[in-house]
């Protein structure tokens, strides 16, 4: 289901777009915004995949709003739907997918949405292939951990999460094993990030494949429930958005 937000300060124009878009299969209009500031807030909350937005909106213009949106999620498809034909250059500078001028060509809207759906499928297929290649490469990899006078070798896919506690780094592994070392967390972040591990908090690195649940925990923080352990990790709000953008479909 393709999640769409429509943003225009003219309710009539929003209704015109909505009437066309909601008739298309595989579409969900998750929100409507009447100004640029409201749109940016909706993007953070609703995480749409496509936005139809006007150029001339109160508080924050469509161009300025699109810049903020790009910082939130550069993968969102931005489609400018406006009465001005003179802002196309500015629109494509913020990586607009299309630029529609009122009165709208309804068939153009349908074709644009169809193409986005095709690109979404292509993205998902590429993501699956990358994941499969990474997993096959990681199956035989071991992480070398130095602890006092010995070296411990851990199968990379078996790592659940890594955290820091009382000046020690704790590596939680499938089978209720915890390996302790004085090596810094940064060292493991640098050597594991290319193998899909994710620094979700200043004190935690997680294996995305082990994440089962995120639930609110205080202000702008989530509690992360992980497979194969009763222990939990923490994830900041900012990293939660990045996690879902990178690893979720």
From TrEMBL:
Ranges of residues in domain HTH LytTR-type: 143-249
Alphabetical UniProt keywords: Phosphoprotein
SMART domains membership: LytTR (SM00850), REC (SM00448)
PROSITE patterns linked: HTH_LYTTR, RESPONSE_REGULATORY
Protein name, per record: Two component transcriptional regulator, LytTR family
Record PTM 4-aspartylphosphate, positions in chain: 54
InterPro entries per the UniProt record, alphabetical: CheY-like_superfamily (IPR011006), LytR-like (IPR046947), LytTR_DNA-bd_dom (IPR007492), Sig_transdc_resp-reg_receiver (IPR001789)
One Pfam family linked to the record: Response_reg
Molecular function GO terms recorded: DNA binding; phosphorelay response regulator activity
């Amino acid at each position: 289901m393709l999640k769409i937000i429509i943003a225009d300060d003219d309710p009539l124009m929003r209704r015109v777009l909505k009437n066309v878009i909601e008739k298309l299969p595989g579409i969900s209009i998750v929100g409507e915004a009447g100004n640029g500031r409201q749109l940016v807030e909706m993007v953070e909350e609703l995480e749409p995949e496509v936005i139809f937005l006007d150029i001339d909106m109160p508080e924050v213009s469509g161009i300025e709003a699109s810049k903020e949106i790009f910082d939130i999620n550069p993968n969102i498809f931005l489609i400018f739907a406006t009465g001005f034909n003179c802002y196309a250059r500015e629109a494509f500078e913020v990586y607009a997918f299309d630029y529609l001028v009122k009165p709208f060509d309804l068939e153009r809207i349908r074709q644009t949405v169809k193409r986005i759906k095709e690109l979404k499928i292509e993205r998902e297929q590429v993501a699956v292939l990358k994941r499969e290649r990474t997993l096959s490469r990681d199956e035989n990899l071991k992480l070398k951990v130095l602890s006092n006078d010995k070296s411990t070798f851990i199968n990379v896919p078996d790592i659940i999460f890594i955290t820091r506690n009382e000046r020690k780094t704790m590596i939680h592994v499938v089978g209720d094993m915890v390996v302790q070392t004085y090596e810094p967390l940064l060292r493991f972040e640098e050597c594991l990030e290319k193998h899909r591990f994710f620094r979700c908090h200043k004190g935690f690195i997680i294996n995305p494949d082990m994440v089962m649940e995120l639930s609110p925990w205080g202000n702008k923080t989530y509690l992360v429930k992980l497979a194969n352990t009763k222990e939990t990790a923490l994830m900041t709000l900012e990293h939660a958005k990045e996690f879902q953008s990178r690893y979720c479909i």
